[in-house]
Amino acid sequence: MPRHAATVVVVRDGAQGLEVFCVLRHQKSSFLGGAVVFPGGKVDPGDGADVWASLATEPHPRGAEMAEGEPSTRAIAVAACREALEEGNIIPLVRAGEPTEAVGDAEVDTIRREAHGLVLPPGQEAGLAAALVRRGLRLALHALVPWARWVTPEAESRRYDARFFLLELPLGQVGRHDEHETTMSFWARPTTVLQRFARGEIFLAPPTTRTLETLTAAPDVRAAFELAAQQSLRPICPHFVPDDVAPFLALPGDPAHAVREQRVNGPTRFVLRDARFVSEDPPGAIEDGGATGGRATT
Predict the structure, then answer these.
(1) Per-block average pLDDT, block size 10, for the chain (298 residues)?
(2) Sign of CA dihedral 263, 5, 164, 9
(3) Can you give the pTM of this predicted structure?
(4) In this structure, which topology does domain 3-231 adopt according to CATH?
């Protein structure tokens, strides 16, 4: 069975339009080593602890559409916050009584280090929850807007059921890699990241590619969240087709996929070309505006 995971697509308004935060996974990572990704990782047992009922706001209401039993909607959202902190030094927070006060980059970095026990006040315990309690902070789970749900193809030995969330960069925060799981980080427009991928400068996994393709339609953060409200949150589990000429991953809605409904905008397959999976429609398909047009058919 796939392991439950959470991914955070952090966005901000840049000088030339919408920008996304990307990190480079360590080359020796067992999953997607050397790939440019969004911060994320698996859901841990502690993400479902009772303490988060009082140390977090209520998750976005659409989050329930991506949760089925266990883990809970809250646990998935907590995992998203924790992973964004660990891999990108970004975390949505609210301070008791002062919900608009910024929690800046330096304080976030200290919270990250305390959570891992790297630095602690005398006599204090490690852990994210303890670090937040000391500051009167709570996780702002409502700020995580559900975006998509991608499930690793059955052909893979290491599989994840990853829930993607959209998050606007919190005020006062910057974003930086951790020099452990991630070795580089950068902000860029979605089109710029896709162009680098097309030139073979970086490697992207299909869920990352499709997310960037969809976000090219958003000129700013507000438009990105409008797009998020239009996305289907039903599972997208690509099916690997070992074609003799060009193997490909078929998405729901493709003629080669058992699920007939299209669950994400854009071409319905990723074809393996020059060691990269690139978005393409099946031969003979009628173009419908590509990955950036309209909402997915559900």
Answers:
(1) 96 97 75 81 96 97 90 97 96 78 90 90 88 95 98 90 98 87 89 96 96 98 98 97 93 97 96 94 68 33
(2) negative
(3) 0.91
(4) Nucleoside Triphosphate Pyrophosphohydrolase (3.90.79)
